[in-house]
Design brief:
Structural class: mainly alpha
Shape: extended
Helix content: 40-55%
Order of helices and strands: HHHHH
Oligomer: single chain
Length: about 140
Amino acid sequence: MERILMDFTELFCVVDDFCREFEPLWYQRLIAGCRRRRRKSRLSLSERMTIVIAFHASGYRDFKHYYAMLLAQHRADFPGLLSYARFVRQMPVLTVPLCAYLQTSYGQHTGIAFVELTGTIPTKLTAIDPHATTR
């Protein structure tokens, strides 16, 4: 199966421009009473977002194999690349910035929308007791 490899530089530039505007606003709106450490990571927020966005566009089925390919072939693109386990632990922090990035990159709304419903037949699902025994 042929993998789609994208240009990290172009994607990174777009994501980095977004993060330069988004990060100060995000930290400003965080709850003031909640003390959280904001340690400096070896990978910036925009680098981590670039990796996750490129994964979704790559065609890989699981992140672990994609990250192994990234470690082997693109270490020069990301000099501070973390281990797989550490990167996965930091992924929940990316939820809000990724959602905000997706909202800003939708484009202009035209008012026209298409919904395709072919092949979807609603069925009534009955609840099955998982603890019930068969007789």
